[in-house]
Design goal:
4 helices, mainly alpha, about 140 residues
């Protein structure tokens, strides 16, 4: 059951990293805005490097340039709209820009998980049809 093992490892490390980051974040008693801004800057820089040096080059191998630029453009526009909505809905409640940034990031992550789940599901279905992963480990020819 290679698929089950890989699925469980992915689930473990995905949730472990998020949980560990949350626990470390909770251990800070009083976090200043400067510290929170630094953490957000580090995280956004890390994500930008993954997008620029890993995801976009891989996307260019699979699809043409126009499709990749369109996808990136749609993502940017969706996040701009998300930011505008958050700014308008919270402007009368709070002036805390870090709260607004956190809510916009949370919405962006939630929106990101839907197409990511579709891509993972389609990739799994395609690999099963192509027999990239063995369906039964007990059958040896």
């Amino acid at each position: 059951m290679n698929i089950l093992k890989n699925t469980l490892l992915g689930l473990f490390f995905g949730t472990f990293g998020t949980t560990l980051g949350g626990i470390i974040g909770l251990k800070f008693d009083k976090t200043s805005n400067k510290t929170l801004s630094s953490i957000l800057s580090f995280a956004s820089g890390l994500m930008m490097s993954i997008v620029c040096f890993d995801l976009i080059p891989e996307a260019l191998e699979i699809a043409d340039f126009a499709t990749v630029v369109t996808g990136v453009g749609i993502g940017i526009i969706v996040m701009i709209v998300c930011d505008i909505i958050v700014q308008n809905k919270l402007s009368y409640r709070s002036n805390n820009s870090l709260l607004k940034t956190g809510i916009a990031c949370g919405i962006g992550l939630a929106l990101h998980n839907f197409p990511e789940g579709l891509a993972i599901g389609c990739g799994f279905e395609a690999s099963m049809k192509l027999r990239i992963f063995p369906c039964n480990n007990n059958s040896h020819s």
